[in-house]
Amino acid sequence: MSACLVCQEVRGVIPVPGGFLQSSGSSVALHVPPLDHRDVYLGHLLVVPRRHVPDFAGLEESEAAEIGVAISRWSRALATFGADRVYVATIGHGSDHLHVHLVPRWPETPSEIPWHSVDEWSGARRADFDGAAQFAGALLAEADLH
Ligand SMILES: [Zn+2]
Fold it and tell me: Mind listing the domains of the chain with CATH numbers?
């Protein structure tokens, strides 16, 4: 479990841009950090349980409720920033610690780009750590207003 990337993010071993958007009792929300000095898709958020649980089936109901509220809240914040849609997915092939992806579809995304590739086309909004931190800060400020 010590090698778990998500656990390291939750414990603050891996810095996340702008710090946690939300750090309540059993879950945290964060902007994905650039790993290996790459850039990241702007607005790509994660909602994760603090507990090392592989999937939704392993959650306590209180954890599931909290994660559901967080998904709703941060989807709304991304929409406020102009996202046409917010895709929500759990994939889990890379880590056995549940992490829910919130991936905004920004309005300039060509209609032929499928949902799972909105971060890959040439004009996709991308940012380095500082750019993502700035966005996370703005998102947090916006979320606090509502
Ligand atoms: Zn973990």
Answer: 5-145 (3.30.428.10)
